[in-house]
Write a structure and sequence with these properties.
By secondary structure, the protein is an alpha+beta fold. The protein folds into two domains: 82 residues; 93 residues, CRO Repressor (2-Layer Sandwich). The chain is 55% helix and 9% strand. The chain has nine helices and four strands, in the order ααααββααββααα. Strands 2-1-3-4 form a four-stranded antiparallel β-sheet. α1 runs antiparallel to α2. The longest helix has 24 residues. The radius of gyration is 22 Å and the shape is elongated. InterPro entries: DUF421, UPF0702_alpha/beta_dom_sf. One of its GO terms (cellular component) is plasma membrane. Keywords: Cell membrane, Membrane, Transmembrane, Transmembrane helix.
């Protein structure tokens, strides 16, 4: 009967620790997060079969503590973020493929094209900046000629009053990737 309680205890600890580690789909996880999750799964399996539940619970707590510590430090220090979590890599710049960066990522042009098709992009010439993010997703900024018409564009055409500030128009999330760092301190409040 104690075997059943030990199994429940390990599953409860594992569930709580996964909630603490954060909610992400596997495709959004960094390498460190994925390894921690796999190690936790392996440890839970061994704990149930070998009946060493309290040692396993302790090791799981250490794994998650280390993961959360690395995540916290990565938020505070850009160098640690780059080291542990990675940074986006530019693969398209001004409509041109960056083959040296594709080689670093061990990604073929066909794989890049597949990601572009998934995003509804039909041509490299339509992409001003394309990146492979740290989590493996494809990020992009379209060239002016390929951008869809927005409410802001319609407001300009119809001469309606603007609702966005000049500051919002000048900010660009790809600047950090292209220039390898933050231009200014990121405020904790949203504008």
């Amino acid at each position: 009967m104690s075997f059943i309680w030990q199994a429940f205890a390990i599953l409860a600890v594992g569930y709580i620790l996964i909630r603490i580690a954060g909610k992400k789909a596997a495709s959004e996880m960094t390498g460190l997060e994925l390894i921690t999750l796999l190690a936790m799964a392996s440890m839970i399996g061994h704990a149930v079969s070998e009946q060493i539940w309290w040692k396993t619970a302790l090791v799981l707590c250490i794994f998650v503590f280390l993961l959360v510590t690395v995540q916290f430090l990565s938020i505070k220090f850009d160098t640690l973020e780059r080291l542990f979590l990675g940074k986006a890599t530019v693969v398209i710049k001004n409509g041109k493929i960056q083959p040296e960066n594709l080689k670093k990522l061990r990604m073929s042009v066909d794989q890049l094209e597949g990601r572009m098709r998934n995003m509804g992009i039909h041509s490299f010439a339509d992409v001003k900046t394309g990146t492979i993010e740290a989590n493996g997703e494809f990020g992009y900024e379209l060239m002016r000629h390929a951008k869809p018409v927005t409410i802001g564009d319609l407001e300009k055409i119809l001469k309606l009053p603007k609702k966005t500030s000049k500051k919002q128009q000048q900010e660009n999330i790809f600047t950090e990737v292209l220039e390898r760092g933050h231009q200014k301190e990121i405020s904790s409040e949203s504008d």
